[in-house]
User: What shape does this take?
Amino acid sequence: MKKLFIIILLIVQQSSSQSTDELIKKGEEASTVQFNNQIALQYFELANKSEKNNYEILWRISRTYLDIGEHSEESKQLAIYEKSLSFSEQAIKINPQGSMGYMRRAAVNGKIALFKGVWESLDLADKIKSDLEKSIKLDKTNAGAYYILGRTHAKLCEKPKFIRIPLGIGWAKMEESLSNYETALTLRTNFIMYNLDAARAYVEIDDYKKAKFLLYKIPSFQNEDEDDDRFRKEAVELLNEIKGK
Assistant: This one.
């Protein structure tokens, strides 16, 4: 904690001589290369103070709060996710034609739904779907939007269709889940989380050959997410579960 405080103090001292673009670049490096979300947040917040209403800063702050929330104590998670939601909505307000704002709002609403319980948060399902479809319409290369849409379909399909229809979520389909996962993989082939969750979806439809194909590739991929070591272990566990199938 003391080391983190010193680093943050140095960042603040140096920020006055750095441009907004430089602060965003350093925040992005802290987030996606060093996997240090607290440091990333400091850079993005300094950039936000330097230049208010910057879309590129706002959606990144939303992403960072979500990442921090995922690794926080359960008692603190919802408040952090709500901060993430607030910044995603600010990003959308500033730039309603930006794909990332909608994707970030969908991502954090998904986390809020999981936190509260998916079946207790069905009012969010249509909102998440709408945001993701809008995100994809605005940017057909947004791999994250396809991935989250695939995951949404898969999660809702955990309940039989005859249960889902009266709840207003009969639109969820495993074939849509797989289609979106495959598009995400085409756009970002070596991302471990995409391969793992797509493999899980293929297991659900008993396509063990395709699931194994995806899982066997994972050891050759570089880490691109702070949770990749955990995902690697989960991939091995899933392979062991479907061994011989």
Summary: Residues 53-188 form a domain with the Serine Threonine Protein Phosphatase 5, Tetratricopeptide repeat fold (CATH 1.25.40.10). Confidence is low (pLDDT under 50) at residues 5-9.
